[in-house]
Design goal:
4-stranded antiparallel β-sheet; about 260 residues; alpha/beta; tRNA_MeTrfase_Gcd14 (chains A, B, C, D); homotetramer; Vcp-like ATPase, Chain A, domain 2; 8 helices; tRNA (adenine(58)-N1)-methyltransferase activity (chains A, B, C, D); globular; transferase (chains A, B, C, D); 2 domains; Rossmann fold; 8-stranded mixed β-sheet
């Protein structure tokens, strides 16, 4: 009860240290460590046992804010070995499946683990993410990212070429595909996935989308949809409101389909 | 164990009955009920105990597919008394907070309950959504929507004018505001929310965004961001790939901010 | 001199009769004709010799405004036999070429003549548009559209299959291609076009773009660009400013390339 | 006749020298001058009397192409003292008016002259652009830009504060406003503009749009529209087709309105 309402920063907690838009860092609150920026240094010992929302000062007198990292912050600040799925895309895709606490989910490939950590968070406490990746070094990096955010118990990594070997599980609630050749995975995914449930995949190029959809149709998936999610920032300032003038204009095309089963 | 992998449609389950893009219905699998469409009728008794993914035929011989509804389907097919937040916006906003299983969340107003059901799903099994709404009739409709999707135990409704009375809770993990005058709620939200945690709000008009941000600044919120999420469908057909020619071009501007606390 | 500043509506002038956003008509000011709308009728005799900008009243007392049609109005209100290029796309494409008064331009196909009239207007008084179309009935309709807006002397129609027969002209300043299979026209266009000058083409589908670009590369065109131009309306109202909620989300992909010549 | 079809680069012609996407220059073909790039130098004497479309080689053996500059190239490569209107916006706005060869047009402010040169080109040979600007140094730079592209005879510059002094002309066919406070110009524009004709204005911020529209309504302008034109590049490459990943996301909101006159 008391624990539930506790809002103190604990040793090893992840904290978003925010000075301004250009100076925001995801830091682990480890006593004895220091962080430095061009607006001054701060001693992480000083924030442990402070509440989230605490306002501190760097040694140069600049305010910094100790904020709770959002799920998107955890993704975007993960140590990256690969490009990652963006929160705008993942938020959309997650709701395009039926997953929630307790779900059993497959993702392929693991990459930096940014997707893995979000899926793990939302299938916790009893669900599991089976994360497949061909490169052992990617898994090692992703494992550290997952451990840092505290969802290691909800993830099981496998280093294998799924296109060749397939998956070790069946009756899976949703499959998330983030590889350059999703079409090579689709037949294996069709075996592992529960009937009527969701496969999602995303790719930057139109040709990848077409080949993936052909593979989905060949494996009797139905209700296929392709979307793009475009994020646009609005700047709200004293001198006026307007959209940001430059930014990201494309990340990926997002595919969703549902598995049909033959019955007798 | 067996139960976990069970994929049979049970009496009263929600099933997405899909004939084609123009004929897709969220139906409760109640024995004895019939559904009808211009492509033929079907008896819902026939789908109970069939697996999800089952392909049936209407009495006119048209195939229909028994699919698992996605979280977005549950939202979009909720019985509406009001406009609802769109999955593209909610997926983004949810990841802009830190909520997950076990979180204690406030939403205001309840509206049709489309947001309520998604928040309830993702804070389950142990978390709770405190949903505030001024209109008792909206709460009654939302309650039915929530019960239908099975998350009633994770929602507590309150019928009150929050701008006047404030919230009954403190130490809340995230606050979702969906009312025409968010700025009137912000001072009360600043009391209920945990330090460092997230308030999100969305409004269709620029002026609403400006007034809300002024209120957020007056209440010492920091790290405010405003985004628009634009969804664009790609049609992938034999005759060629292209974006859909007409569609939704605006829903809402999305605001996110984090609460700062004064310390002594 | 007096003539230059004359702003009176003359017999047979095209006038945009504007009652409100939903009731706006391009009418020819012909004495004796009447127009009717659900907000009342008006006698076109009454507007002849009135100045543009004149405010009249229907027989039901509703104000109507006699406005100068813009070039975009002339396009959008042309009698259509086909889909037309949109002003947002044409405005962009026209500036992507070097055409202006005096230019000799080819367009293919004529379609409804919406593009033809704009090109004719901007190459007048001494330039010419050579407009090619396979269907005689399209040319007949386009000819009427062009005559109505008064640029018949700047257009020469030819009814022929250009993919087979090629063009009758050479040393053309710019070529505008609006046919379903632009790639079939490209080799003929490469003959007719001046060195270093511009070919533009537009197509709704990605596959059309790809094949056209392959044809352009095979014919030694360089500096190829593909763009999409997306128009978004902002509603500025007393209750607030926001983008329109539904609208057109795709028309065409726009290609521009420039012809290279081999020299010895 | 011969002259009409002549496509040779003449002394002082503007030529777009194109090596690749990152190396493209608008150069005046002046004998004796050299241009240099990291891919080699070229002697401009070598391109005079060559035809447009000519392929040359730098002293390092890299191909360069001598292309005809498009109208958009002339704008984008003008020597800038200010931000300029983008071709995507200007192309749209120009068609939202009725201007063409012979029109008398006002623009305010002159800025770098990018807009001026395009208006001058499209009202030539007999029309004129009255260009107003408060800063004499801006006019000097713009004058050079206009002279370089050859439309000096179609432009008349005036250095004055229009908000105070108004315009020297009446019965103008269209007015283009590109200043930070368009609302201060609107009452003067209402005097100078022909009845029923078009005023266009563009501003980056929502507040500017609102104030301008209030001024337009106060001066009895009607049929006001506000649009945004968003340009999106598609990359068509061997490895696949996709939108460009980063780019310009906002330039300006575009306003168009038409003048009403009181009649007696």
């Amino acid at each position: 009860m008391t624990k539930e309402f506790d809002n103190l920063i604990k040793e090893k907690d992840l904290v978003l240290i925010y000075l301004d838009e250009k100076r925001q860092f995801l830091a682990q609150a480890v006593s004895g460590l220091r962080m430095s920026s061009d607006l001054g240094d701060l001693d992480l010992s000083d924030i442990v046992k402070k509440p989230y929302g605490f306002v501190g000062k760097t040694h140069l007198g600049k305010d910094f804010y100790c904020l709770k990292p959002s799920t998107a912050d955890l993704m975007m600040k993960a140590r990256r070995t690969t490009t990652i799925v963006y929160p705008k895309d993942l938020g959309y895709l997650m709701l395009e499946t039926a997953i929630g606490p307790g779900s059993r989910v497959i993702e392929i490939g693991t990459g930096s683990g940014a997707l893995t950590m979000v899926l793990a968070k939302f299938v916790a406490p009893d669900g599991i993410v089976y994360s497949y990746e061909r490169r052992e070094d990617f898994i090692e990096n992703a494992r550290k990212n997952i451990e840092r955010v505290g969802y290691a118990q909800n993830v099981e990594f496998t280093c294998v070429d799924v296109a060749l070997k397939g998956f070790n599980q069946t009756d899976i609630d949703a499959i998330f595909i983030d590889v350059p050749e999703p079409w090579a995975i689709v037949p294996k995914a069709a075996v592992a996935l529960k009937g009527g449930h969701h496969l999602v995949s995303w790719s930057p190029n139109v040709e990848q989308v077409k080949r993936t959809i052909e593979a989905l149709e060949a494996c009797s998936f139905k209700r296929t949809k392709v979307k793009e999610i475009i994020e646009r920032e609005m700047l709200v300032r004293l001198q006026g409101v307007r959209p940001r003038e430059r930014g990201i204009t494309h990340t990926a095309y997002l595919i969703r389909a549902q598995k049909i089963i033959a019955t007798t």
